[in-house]
């Protein structure tokens, strides 16, 4: 009778062992996929940061050009006003 009692227990353990093996393989696969995806995210974040820096540089250059153009126009206007004041003073 003891042989019949052990057989179902062994069948149960075989099934459990197979499920544990499948789960461990799946976990290994998921860890590899996760590592690959984490690397990809890191690369994409680096690319995004580079593009933002380049965009910021371009934007800063555009602002600098605009400021320079405004400064030149204001200086020109101020020069004309000074000329008008000098003409009135004469």
Q: Can you give keywords for this protein?
A:
1 helix, 90 residues, mainly alpha
Quick recap:
The protein is mainly α. The chain is built from 1 helix and no strands.
Walk me through the structure:
- With 90 residues, the chain is an all-alpha fold.
- It is built from one helix and no strands.
- It has one helix spanning 2-89.
- The longest helix is centred in the middle third of the chain and has 88 residues, at 2-89.
- The chain is rod-shaped, with a radius of gyration of 38 Å.
Output mean pLDDT. 86
- Order of helical and strand elements: H
Helical proportion?
A: over 70%
Give me the secondary-structure category.
Answer: mainly alpha
Unreliable stretches: none
Estimated share of beta-strand residues: under 5%
Number of strands: 0
Helices, strands, pairings?
Elements: H1 2-89
